[in-house]
Design brief:
Shape: globular
Oligomer: single chain
Radius of gyration: 17 Å
Structural class: alpha+beta
Order of helices and strands: EEEEEHEEEEHEEHHEEEHH
Bound molecules: thymidine-5'-phosphate
Number of strands: 14
């Protein structure tokens, strides 16, 4: 049964589970934020869409031997997950130049990278999630060099799997962000969410942006776009 609120973030609430110390309930909110919370709004249905999309993606990854904290969907907006200690890193993979790297390094948007490019950000709202290097990660994120290499390998595996999943539903996976948690036995596991809030997805035919950039850049109706992503994934899952 759902226990007390443990933590509230910008897009999710985290609840304890009564009698199950090793599990948590993630409750997806309708809030959308961008630019470290400077831009915000609420969209009816967004929580449901991200909950169901993220569940679908984690289920696909499980089928392809990529483990995560995801256990099962509980209802439209909530999922049961394994409790882990979050590693304060945002591991970003880029297949094509877009977003912050375009501004930071003066690249052309849409320029593809020959091989996926990994960037690390330190998860710290007060510092605005700065870009960091590996040595900063050992210092700040309580990970060893070996563990960081494991995280990077897992991230590249997820990229390969997700590129294929999204290509099958006519979407190009431009970039995305992963987070990892540590289990009590010390092992590292994929955590948080994988949704159009945390990925850039472009329609492979029209090039249309089908992710949170719709909100960040004011391009249209975020819920309509997320609904299309869910529909395409569900059609594929049932095909
Ligand atoms: P960026 O281009 O803004 O650095 O974002 C790279 C990817 O990471 C993009 O797919 C969106 C995702 N992302 C998050 O999930 N959370 C964040 O706070 C930020 C800044 C990006």
């Amino acid at each position: 049964m759902k226990g007390s609120l443990l933590y509230e973030g910008k897009a999710k609430q985290v609840y304890r589970v009564e009698g199950e110390a090793e599990q948590l309930i993630l409750s997806y909110k309708n809030d959308a934020t961008a630019f470290n919370g400077k831009k915000k709004d609420q969209f009816n249905g967004k929580g449901r869409l991200n909950n169901l999309i993220s569940a679908n993606v984690f289920a696909y990854l499980h089928q392809h031997d990529v483990r995560s904290h995801f256990i099962k969907t509980l209802n439209d907006t909530e999922q049961l997950v394994e409790k882990t200690t979050i590693i304060p890193l945002e591991v970003v993979v880029r297949n094509v130049a877009a977003g912050s790297i375009v501004k930071r390094l003066g690249l052309e948007e849409k320029q593809p990278f020959d091989s996926p490019l990994i960037e690390l950000f330190y998860k710290n709202d007060d510092l605005n999630d700065p870009l960091i290097n590996d040595e900063h990660a050992y210092l700040l994120a309580d990970v060893t060099e070996e563990e960081l290499n494991v995280l990077k390998r897992m991230t590249l595996t997820v990229n390969t799997q997700l590129r294929s999943l999204f290509a099958d539903v006519n979407l190009q996976l431009v970039d995305f962000k992963l987070e990892f948690g540590r289990r009590q036995d010390g092992s590292l596991v994929l955590s948080d969410e994988i949704s159009p809030d945390t990925c850039r997805l472009w329609d492979r035919e029209t090039g249309e942006k089908m992710d949170k950039d719709v909100f960040r850049q004011g391009l249209g109706d975020l819920v309509d776009v997320y609904e299309v992503i869910l529909q395409r994934l569900e059609e594929k899952a049932h095909a």
